[in-house]
Amino acid sequence: MNHIKKASLAFLLILTICSVTGQFFKTDAKFPTQLLNVAHKSKLMVGDSSFNPYGNGQLLVKRTNHGGHGSSCIYAENTEASVLKAGYRIVSKGLYTDTLVVEPLVGSSLQEQIKELGQLDGVEYVEPNYTYRASVPLSDEKLYQIKDMLEPYAMVRVDGPLIVSAPVKAQRGSHSKFEPNDPLYKYQWHMNKVYADEGWEVGDRGKGAVVAVIDTGVAYEDYGQFKLARDLKGQAFTKPYNFVDRNEHANDDHGHGTHVAGTIAQATNNNEGVTGVAFNSTIMPLKVLSAMGSGSTQDIADAIRYAADNGANVINMSLGGPFPSRVMGEACKYAYEKGVTIICAAGNESSDDVGYPAGYDECIAVSATDTNDELSWYSNYGAKVEIAAPGGDTRVDKNGDGYKDGVLQNTINPRNVSEDVYALFQGTSMASPHAAGVAALIVGCGVANPAEVREVLKASARPVGSGVGDPRFGAGIVDAYSAQEMSQGHYKKFRYVVFVVAFLILGFALFELNRRYGWSNLVAWSSAVGAAWLAQFNSFFSADIAIFPALVLFFGSKYKICRMVSFSWAISTLAQSTYVCSSPYTVLSVFGATGHIVNGLAASIIAYLALRKDILCQGK
Questions:
Q1: Using an 8 Å Cβ cutoff, are 34 and 323 in contact?
Q2: Fewer CB within a 10 Å sphere, N or C end of the chain?
Q3: ω before 167 within 30° of 0 (cis)?
């Protein structure tokens, strides 16, 4: 058996080196080539000359990956030197993306600059450092505050003609409802539209879910002039970061981000203010937009990767722009593959296409609806819209409650960041966090991989318009109650069955290994399996892909070493399948929701035949 030991240890050494030194099987994600000289369809810049989506002439340089983050300092320095020598100033370096933001010292066309920089050693590609901004309609410049029976709520009534129609009530069968004691909850018509009150009676109200709010920041702490918003007291926050100023204080100096965070997780049933969809979830405040409500590709992409690396289950991005960025697209792909569900505002240009990042395949685009379950006047729509949620309309009072039909949450006063208010906002920015909140509720029920969260969101949505598939609403309006019922029912039982079956198969394989080869060989094989598994998690060769060459090598090769290698891949794939099928934080890729089951079955076939027929040690 010494040859088996030696081969196993050699295989362990090879895989360990591979897992540490690089990802040489990894391929670059494919994204559309940027057509810089083609006018876009979006109405985003109409009447808004202050907004420049091209990032004021800045360029984003993506450096070639020479072995992963933090392991290629010499290459990075050489690239930076080349950029400086070419006549560019380095404005900033990516914190979590291997990028440089640069500005030309001498004027030339954008196309010429991209071509010049792209030819430098160490540069993978170049694109404009696009500007993105908070997804609020251009006309929504006024801060609408709400008052009623209690001080210190500011008094602002509807100005203009009062438009009253018969609002569509979100009602159905007799489900128990949780009635919070928050005094302004009665003005949150939008919570009724997503069945929040019924959803709060199901599950743990988002407990255990971490939602990254990538926005203008959140009023989550007392720090200098910034104060904790009164209706966020007692809420859980984790790992904040300010990518604009590059420090750990992601405070809101605009108002947009705090309002968004409130929709997701406002303190609820605390005799104060208003409610949030998943109020037991944890918010990760990530500031990427300035006090003007705009931010850069580099900061947003950095924040996406940061969220994925620091435990976020859900990302909400109520921001957008007209152009796709390859750097941001790769960041979204990275987060998705690490198990993060990404929810994005569809945009507010009344366009038949969504903006970005909502347009990426890894992201779930959310359109906005009003009190009558109709598409809000500003909302984008189209084939890429997957779900809808309340976004409001601050021009009218259709439900007749005396206040404009905006989404009501606690946020800061942008004119005085030390002060907080209860404000009515409108936009797909407000729709997106309703969906993110429901996604957090799903995660709290134990279903957290993004493929399944997306499926639950869509399958449980309430159809409106012409039904499922209506390009204005996608699958329909998100439903907090039905989403949790579905998560706790079919999906939860399905996971337990998969886990038990995979565990029994793995146990049988280990038992047979010990019986046939003894404990000493079992330890050697286990080491090889462990190295293979680690290598797969390090993404240098995905288990989803590895299972196929493993099959070919095993059945087609006459060399023992090839069969040993394929056997290790098979067992490690089986182990990985057991883990991911039992964990709520799994990432599914090639095969979708059944991928790891297919892999596990294929791996078990290899293991069984190897042990049953003793072909593992046959051959040369």
A1: yes
A2: C
A3: no
d(CA 149, CA 183): 9
Strand stretches in 391-513, DSSP E: 407-413, 416-425
C-alpha distances in angstroms, 529 versus 159, 417, 564?
Answer: 69, 55, 10
Whole-angstrom distance, CA of residue 447 vs CA of residue 456: 9
* For the chain, counts of helices (H) and of strands (E): 15, 18
| pTM score above 0.90 | no
pLDDT digits (tens, 9 = 90+) for 15-55: 333 333 333 223 333 333 332 222 223 333 333 444 456 66
Backbone phi and psi for residue 527, each to the nearest 5 degrees, phi listed first: -65, -45
Q: Reduced to 3 states, what is the DSSP secondary structure of residue 41? A: coil
DSSP 247: B
Q: Hey, how many other C-beta atoms are within 10 angstroms of the C-beta on 107?
A: 8
Q: Are 378 and 368 in contact (CB under 8 A)?
A: yes
Query: What pLDDT, in 10s, does the model give residues 147-204?
Result: 432 323 332 333 333 333 334 445 555 678 899 999 999 999 999 999 999 999 988 8
| Per-residue pLDDT tens over the stretch 320-377 | 999 999 999 999 999 999 999 999 999 999 999 999 999 999 999 999 999 999 999 9
Catalytically active residues, by annotation: 215, 256, 429
**Cα 5 versus chain centre, distance:** 44
The DSSP annotation for 414-444 comes to TTEEEEEEEEEE-SHHHHHHHHHHHHHHHHH
3-state per-residue secondary structure call for 515-568: HHHHHHHHHHHHHHHHHHHHHHHCCCCCHHHHHHHHHHHHHHCCCHHHHHHHHH
Picking from 36, 110, 7, the residue whose alpha carbon sits closest to that of residue 568 is 7
Look up residue 176 and give its amino acid.
S
467 contact partners, CB below 8 Å, separation of at least 6 = none
